[in-house]
From TrEMBL:
Protein's recorded name: Pyoverdine synthetase thioesterase component
Family of this protein: Belongs to the thioesterase family.
Boundaries of every Thioesterase domain copy: 24-242
InterPro entries: AB_hydrolase_fold, TEII, Thioesterase
GO biological process: lipid biosynthetic process
Source organism: Planobispora longispora
Length: 243
């Protein structure tokens, strides 16, 4: 069932609502992150794009809710909020979420995004090595993520912050560990991928396999940077969305 307008508010962070913008961009974060991962995107996007960062359960304004990701609920929220042409950008785990949302909308026969953008995300039929972090100790999880560039090193020295971050991380990596790709027809939406030139976790040659998951065309851009290149390459990514 499609959620009502009132129930949609908790799903999205929209720092700069732009009801007259001709396009919407829904952004899905990486494991452990929230809508804050896309801070500054709304301002940088300009008047032509309304940026909607998705707020997943258990974080930010939904801190009191149980952790968990439900693709059907994500699809409900996107479908109900998309009131004009739109695209989806997902980074790392967010790319997998975005892909499954498009598949769910396709199954329902609902309006699809103009394009799916995936950054630093393995194709869904590939094994995700980071999923093993669901089963390691808190210390090892933090250490691995700091090494990857996903967390500031100073976080380890702040026990209160660690207590807030760790449950979200563990919930998301558990979702990745339990995720099972179910083979099906390629989506009828173009996919544009972005890979970090120095990303050892998801190298460009791995991301090229996204081409087999769309019947509408695939392109890949290799960006300077590591797994979290989107921080420095935000404006370039938004230029591609505008194009």
């Amino acid at each position: 069932m499609r959620p009502g307008t009132g129930s949609l508010e908790h799903w999205f962070s929209v720092p700069q609502p732009r009801h007259a913008a001709p396009m919407q961009l829904f952004c899905l974060p990486w494991a452990g992150a929230g809508a804050g991962a896309f801070q500054g995107w709304a301002a940088a996007a300009g008047p032509g794009i309304e940026v909607l960062s998705m707020v997943l359960p258990g974080r930010e304004g939904r801190f009191s809710e149980p952790f968990g990701v439900d693709i059907g609920e994500l699809a409900d929220a996107v479908s109900a909020r998309a009131d004009r042409p739109y695209a989806i950008y997902g980074h790392s785990m967010g790319g997998t979420l975005g892909f499954e949302v498009v598949r769910e909308l396709t199954r329902r026969g609902e309006r699809l995004p103009r394009r799916l953008y995936v950054g630093a995300c393995r194709p869904p039929d590939h094994v995700e090595p980071l999923a093993e972090l669901a089963e390691v100790s808190d210390e090892e999880m933090l250490s691995r993520l700091i090494e990857l560039g996903g967390l500031p090193e100073e976080l380890v020295a702040e026990p209160e912050l660690c207590e807030l971050v760790l449950p979200v991380l563990r919930a998301d990596f558990t979702w990745l560990r339990e995720y099972v790709y179910r083979p099906g027809p390629p989506i009828g939406v173009p996919i544009e991928g972005f890979a970090g030139a120095d990303d050892r976790s998801v190298p460009a040659e791995v991301m090229r396999d996204w081409a087999g998951h769309t019947s509408a065309g695939f392109t890949l851009g290799v960006e300077p940077g590591d797994h979290f290149f989107l921080r420095e390459r935000r404006d370039h990514i938004l230029d591609r969305v505008r194009a």
